[in-house]
Amino acid sequence: MKRFFAMLLAVCMTFCACAFAEEDGTDLSYVDVKERGALRVGMDKAYAPFCFVDETNEYTGFDVDFAYAICDALGVELEVVPIEWKNARSALEDGSVDMLLCGFAQADNEDMLRVSFPYIESGTALVVKGDSAVSAMADMAGKTLGLREGSCEADVLNENKELYQVLSAAYSFPTAYELLNAVETGSVDGALVDRLVAEYRIAQGANLKFVGEPEAVWELTAAFAPQSEALWSAVNDAMVTLAFNGVLSDIASDWFGSDITVLAGYLVALEETEEGE
Predict the structure, then answer these.
(1) Which of 77, 116, 137, 181 could form a disulfide with 38 if both were Cys (CB 3.0 to 4.6 A apart)?
(2) Residue 169: in which H helix or E strand, if any?
(3) With bands split at pLDDT 50, 70 and 90, how would you rate the model's confidence at 216?
(4) Edge-to-edge strands of the sheet including 169-173?
(5) pLDDT tens digits, residue range 108-133?
(6) How far is it, in rounded angstroms, from Cα 145 to Cα 142?
(7) Rounded Cα distance, 38 and 266, in Å
(8) What residues are paired with 40 via a beta bridge?
(9) pTM
(10) How far is the C-alpha of 69 from the C-alpha of 78, rounded, in Å?
(11) Rounded Cα–Cα distance for residues 147 and 149 (Å)
(12) 85: how many CB neighbours lie within 10 A of its CB?
């Protein structure tokens, strides 16, 4: 309980600091969102279970529900802006969106953008067709591999020389949906893809299977343009509240069957580290 109140105090102090900065004219990113009355969140609309279009032609998914909760906390509406992930950074830079969600890993950042506290953990997994003879990484020798264009899986592949050097070819796909379709139809022999995305697709009946353990583990965050410090801080504040009031945990349980979020644990560990210094 002591940690909870200490965290809320830190949130209030940060919010006040941002308010003073905005009044000084140094950063109007949060003021602009409040005046517009909507937070424009860039998402890949074919990235279930994080974001996808349901049978009523509405955006749904874990990150969509999380974004709605953030907007409720900020007192604004949510505007989902569908983007191709390869254009995610440029959408922030040209002002088309205020924030990115939908599987943005801290490893994607490369010190180019502001990132929020991590809120969920996933990883990059090797996935093949369910009846494939591939059962180990070495079995990919001479075979083809697919990746989602603009994702961190390309970095994982480049760092995994054992896999990279034995492939016959690697191909990029605009969306994870098309990527996993290509694996199911045999257009490629395997794919490096977000583990949670593949798990959801398999749960929906896809003829896919995992090979080995995840190749890398990522902490997923929201991302902002470097100059949007006030908005970044306000969203972080909202995320802290949602982590400690149980809303974030409930959203995760709805989509994943259990609370797989990491934000509350991250904040507690951060406070303990700061207290020990």
Answers:
(1) 77
(2) strand 169-173
(3) confident
(4) 169-173, 144-148, 190-194, 120-129, 208-220
(5) 555 568 999 999 999 899 999 999 99
(6) 10
(7) 28
(8) 79
(9) 0.86
(10) 9
(11) 6
(12) 24
